[in-house]
Amino acid sequence: MSPTTGTATKTTTPDSVSTAEPAPAPSSATSATFAPHDASPSKAHQVLSTPVPVRRAVRRLPYLLLKGATKSVAIVALLLLWETAPRLGLVDRTFLPPFSEVARAWWGLAADGQLADNARASLVRSFSGFGLAVAVAVPLGLLIGWYRPVADLLGPLLEVFRNTAALALLPVFVLLLGIGETSKISIVVYACTWPILLNTISAVRNVDPTLLKLAKSMDLSAPRLFQKVILPSAVPVMFTGIRLAGAVSILVLVAAEMIGAKAGLGYLINASQYNFAIPQMYAGIITISAIGVAFNQFLVAVERRLSSWRVPVGG
After folding, report:
1. Which terminus of the chain is more exposed, N or C, with fewer CB under 10 A?
2. Tell me, what DSSP letter sits at residue 96?
């Protein structure tokens, strides 16, 4: 009670806290400020901070290793058989030397530059002929497969030449074009054209009729129909022919180089046979096989890229 006014006064102290207002919750910044500096991040935080592609790669690593080992078992078994059979006397090592001797011969050819020079000559011829065949056969196959009058006009001519082996016409190419580069590239173009052409025609003719009806119901123009329906549907079958042509381009070229050439893997194999350098001959054969496998894998990758819209089987 105040002595002067006679009224009661309420005194507050700094330590008093009002019960009507709740205490503010500490902010995240404040809690972070008072967190101990030596606290290490949790394992869950470390996992979340790892990029998603890296985590997927880590999870798929055992599967990829198992798949690679499974695919390489047959090759390793063949190489072991190749190595042991001549040494055990199962075959004459004069005509089939052990794989280790062939590997040393391959390294010798690679070291002195013979292998690189001959492989370069063959690859230039093979890829030139293969590229020309793709540039000619794919548009022609699309045209023949889509327009029936063109197919009726060129059908009999195609039937005649498709059943004529490319190597049977090799003397004709040599007589007309000489033994230079032109005849070799031309024979590769001829041999590669037919697998690409015939598979492209089949791909266009076997497009799903339901897709065509749906596209036509949307009033798509002919160019858009070709772009959106025909070409995507025809890619898998087309690439079957392109992959066959890739193998044919190397095989036919090697045969052509054995007849008349001064460089190339076919020339290397033929010259090694005449000189009875059997390990060098097998080294050339292995090089051709490796190039063929690499080229086929490249075409498979291109096919997957162009047909990425397809739903994989089983998933």
Report:
1. C
2. S
Whole-angstrom distance, CA of residue 81 vs CA of residue 93: 13
Look up residue 175 and give its two tokens. Answer: 């007589």
Eight-state DSSP code of residue 226: I
CA-wise closest residue to 305 among 226, 239, 227: 239
Extract the tokens encoding 22. Answer: 């709740």
**Per-residue pLDDT reduced to its tens digit, 89-132:** 888 888 999 999 999 999 999 999 889 999 998 899 899 999 99
Q: 55: which 2 tokens? A: 């985590």
- pLDDT tens-digit profile of 15-44? 443 444 444 444 444 444 444 444 445 544
Q: How far apart are CA 193 and CA 201, in angstroms?
A: 12
Residue 13, pLDDT above cutoff 60: no
- Cα 162 to the center of its chain, rounded Å: 28
What are the tens digits of pLDDT across the range 50-84? Answer: 566 677 767 777 777 777 777 778 888 989 999 99
**String of DSSP letters for 100-159:** HHHHHHHHHHHHTTHHHHHHHHHHHHHHHHHHHHHHHHHHHHHHHHH-HHHHHHHHHHHH
Rounded percentage of the chain residues whose pLDDT exceeds 90: 19
pLDDT digits (tens, 9 = 90+) for 137-148: 998 888 888 888
Give the three-state DSSP class for 269.
helix
Q: Which amino acid is at 130?
A: F
Instruction: Specify whether the CB–CB gap between 204 and 148 falls below 8 A.
Output: no
Block residue for tokens 């078994």: 77
| pLDDT tens readout for residues 247-290 | 888 888 888 888 777 888 888 998 898 888 999 999 999 999 99
E-assigned strand segments in 205-305 = none
Task: Report residue 226 CA to chain centroid gap.
Answer: 25
- What's the CA gap between 82 and 99, in Å, rounded? 6
What span, in angstroms and rounded, lies between the C-alpha atoms of 265 and 271? 10
| DSSP one-letter code for 168 | G
Q: Give me the residue label for tokens 């590769």.
A: 188
